[in-house]
Amino acid sequence: MAFEGLAERLQGTIQKIKGKGKVTEQDVKEMMREVRFALIEADVNLKVVKEFVKKVSERAVGVDVMKSLTPGQQVIKIVQDELKNLMGGEQSPIKFSNRPPTVIMMVGLQGAGKTTTTGKLANVLRKKYNKKPLLVAADIYRPAAVEQLQTLGKQLSLPVFSLGTDVSPVEIARQAIEHAKEEHLDVVLIDTAGRLHIDEELMQELKDIRGLKEPDEVFLVVDAMTGQDAVNVAQSFNETVGITGVVLTKLDGDTRGGAALSIRSVTEKPIKFVGMGEKMDALEPFHPERMASRILGMGDVLSLIEKAQANVDMEKAKELEEKFMTQSFTFDDFIEQLQAVKKMGPLDELLKMIPGANKMKGLDNVKVDEKQMGRIEAIIYSMTPNEKTNPEIISASRKKRIATGSGTTIQEVNRLLKQFEEMKKMMKQMTGMAQGKGKKKMKM
Ligand code: GDP
Fold first, then answer.
1. Which residues are in the SRP54-type proteins GTP-binding domain (predicted)?
2. Per residue in 195-218, pLDDT tens?
3. Binding site residues for GTP, as ranges?
4. More exposed terminus of the chain, fewer Cβ within 10 Å: N or C?
5. Is residue 95 part of a domain?
6. Concatenated DSSP letters for 232-258?
7. DSSP assigned state of 336
8. Nearest residue CA, atom 6 of ligand 1?
9. What's the domain count of the chain?
10. Any bridge partners for residue 284, and if so which?
11. DSSP bridge pairs for 221
């Protein structure tokens, strides 16, 4: 998961200072030595580390004059604040043109995830901003990039503009902008050509595209896992082409976090989005504050709530509550729930957003077994509709059939039935309690 190593180190460090009622200069010094080490190990740019340590040290000495928090807690708050500032402070929104179409250029080196991110971003623009995006296939050099974008467009049911690979990227971009105007599409997302390395030709081509119609945004896509290389790439692109923001991909696999923590300071350009997986819905706006909390093990409840809100159908939730109350919850509802949770993303990632979850015994190393969930689904799918509603009718021979049908064992079938039974019992108790309370109130 993202920032794992850094989080672990920093959390260990702040744990020591947390309860202190008095923080001496020596305490701060010692702590900052460890923080410095943690940041360097996370591959954060050296200059950035130095500045960070200086800022925190200055603020941390002499904190004990403040109220409400213990001095130790205040120091942690300062670390969190400065981490947030390091990553840009506030979340940086997308700039849209007031004379559509808005033009967003996607630039980056090959393999960084530019084409994938172009698709993901179009998806976000449509879903969250109600825009009508046009995907433009101008990466004519990487074999199959054009087809890849077309496939993504099909998958997302979004239009893709392409003129094959024989027309120059500048011409493709020009015609695409015209096409968007004619079709009243309001955002043009240009997937420009990547290269293996930064070279003069690439930069010139990007500048030429820029010259067509000053783009509203130029997003550089970089791979978080490449650490300081990503920072150097960002610096070069910023100096030669000029960028307005960064999309950091593969943060899901980046345990160190050096790029995420350095890019803003080095380039002074904000990280706008982060890629958290290969799927089309795995692009998230980058929130420096939430990220800082996550790194320090304070959880990221806001992102968790947003994820839940985006995936939970309120009507369904109400329906479910009703079923809970009347204890008419069936295996069909169960499986629907399972799928709703799965849609929110990998479960172990979700767990890590809960404050303190990484400190809870047993939860720190939890790997939620998605395969296991698949087995549970298979068992339920092997039941008849009547069995799903009334599992108590399932006989021993049926259990055997269900196990065979789902490729599981009788023990697993039994376990699931038992768990379901217990869940229903619990619901009964809970609704009993709720109703009991209600009655009491009425009498009063
Ligand atoms: P391009 O050459 O920059 O256009 O790169 P692609 O879009 O083809 O992406 C390269 C690889 O990175 C593909 O296998 C993508 O699925 C993968 N990828 C892109 N973004 C992410 C991400 O956020 N997380 C993960 N895990 N993989 C990603």
1. 270-283
2. 777 778 888 888 888 888 889 999
3. 108-115, 191-195, 249-252
4. C
5. no
6. HHHHHHHHHT--SEEEEE-GGG-SS-H
7. H
8. 113
9. 3
10. 274
11. 108, 247
